[in-house]
């Protein structure tokens, strides 16, 4: 299983599941993400896409929500085979950077496991 963060096209952004509007609560985010991943798995889909949350004025809120989303994906992927690939689809590099920083800080065990800057160019 794999997590990928990409800068998406308008079409990819529209098709990705949105987490915007959720209550600012770790349990709400995790439950929502895991439910959407379960639905994808039950449908036999090998991939699932989530749209990056809209950036707030408070950087710590952006970091926290990115962490909650990545935690939920990681927890789900540890216990389930499908979907094999999960993508966080971002509208711009600033949004993508939040997810990259969180992933590299919490999940990349080695330098080779880190999300590359090349994906944001």
Average pLDDT for all residues: 88
The strand count comes to 4
Widest sheet, order of strands: 1-4-3-2
Unreliable spans? none
Share of helix, binned: 40-55%
> What structural class is derived from the secondary structure elements?
alpha/beta
User: What is the helix tally?
Assistant: 4
> Biggest β-sheet: count, sense, barrel?
4 strands, parallel
What is the overall shape?
globular
Q: Rg, please?
A: 13 Å
Report the sheet-strand fraction: 15-25%
Give me the strand/helix succession. Answer: EHEHEHEH
Terminal CA distance = 25 Å
Please outline the helices and strands.
Layout: E1 2-7, H1 10-15, E2 17-18, H2 26-42, E3 47-51, H3 59-79, E4 85-90, H4 93-106
Parallel strand pairs: 1-4, 2-3, 3-4
Helix pairs in contact: 2-3, 3-4
What's the short version?
By secondary structure, the protein is α/β, with parallel strands linked by helices. 48% of the residues lie in helices and 16% in strands. It is built from four helices and four strands; from the N terminus they run βαβαβαβα.
């Amino acid at each position: 299983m794999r997590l990928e963060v990409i800068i998406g096209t308008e079409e990819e952004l529209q098709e990705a599941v949105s987490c915007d509007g959720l209550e600012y609560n770790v349990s709400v985010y995790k439950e929502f993400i895991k439910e959407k991943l379960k639905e994808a798995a039950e449908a036999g889909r090998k991939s699932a896409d989530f749209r990056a949350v809209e950036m707030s004025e408070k950087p710590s809120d952006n970091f926290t929500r990115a962490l909650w989303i990545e935690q939920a994906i990681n927890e789900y992927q540890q216990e389930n085979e499908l979907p094999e690939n999960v993508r966080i689809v971002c509208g711009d590099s600033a949004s993508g950077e939040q997810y990259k920083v969180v992933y590299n800080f919490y999940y990349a065990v080695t330098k080779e496991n880190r999300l590359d800057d090349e994906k944001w160019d």
